[in-house]
Amino acid sequence: MKEFPSRLNPKNKEKFSKYCYDRNLAYMRRDIFELVILGDENKFFDLDKFSRLNSVSENDIRSMCIVVMDELKNLGWNVKTSFGGTGLFIYSTENPPPSCYADEF
After folding, report:
1. Are 19 and 7 in contact (CB under 8 A)?
2. Which of 68, 100, 71 is nearest to 85 (CA)?
3. How far is residue 29's CA from residue 23's CA, in Å, rounded to a whole number?
4. Which range of residues forms the domain containing residue 104?
5. What is the pLDDT of residue 63?
6. Does residue 80 lie within any of the structural domains?
7. Domain annotation covers residue 14
8. Which of 13, 35, 50, 56 is the most exposed place for a label (fewest CB within 10 A)?
9. Sign of torsion over alpha carbons 29, 105, 43, 56
């Protein structure tokens, strides 16, 4: 970042939580992209770890997960949560990977 964005001013304090949500959603997309392009569909995106590392609330992580799952489905991927809703599998086959114990949050 070469300079601070103009929206980072005291007048916008009430919008900071939205900015934070949008930033974390962008980070989640980036991290999922990095996972998917590695090509190992037996690996999962660790929602719990992402939440801890980025200080994302449980409500926000669920909301963001719903958004990215819909986006991935629209791109032709299959998605399932596993491990009590803490792991997100993204796969191209009809059946989930062997390590996926599908559940829904």
Report:
1. yes
2. 100
3. 10
4. 58-105
5. 96
6. yes
7. no
8. 13
9. positive
User: What six digits make up the tokens of 51?
Assistant: 């939440």
pLDDT of 22-71, one tens digit each? 999 999 999 999 999 999 999 999 999 999 999 999 999 999 999 999 99
Query: Is 86 inside a domain boundary?
Result: yes
What are the structure tokens assigned to 92, written together?
């191209």
Q: What is the tens place of the pLDDT at every residue in 82-95?
A: 988 899 999 999 98
Tell me how many domains the chain contains: 1
| 63 assigned to some structural domain | yes
Give φ, ψ of 98 to 5 degrees. Answer: -60, -30
Structure tokens at 19: 């900015």
Q: What is the pLDDT of residue 96?
A: 86
User: In whole angstroms, how far apart are CA 38 and each of 3, 15, 34, 44, 96?
Assistant: 33, 35, 7, 11, 17
With a cut of 80, say whether residue 105 has pLDDT above it: no
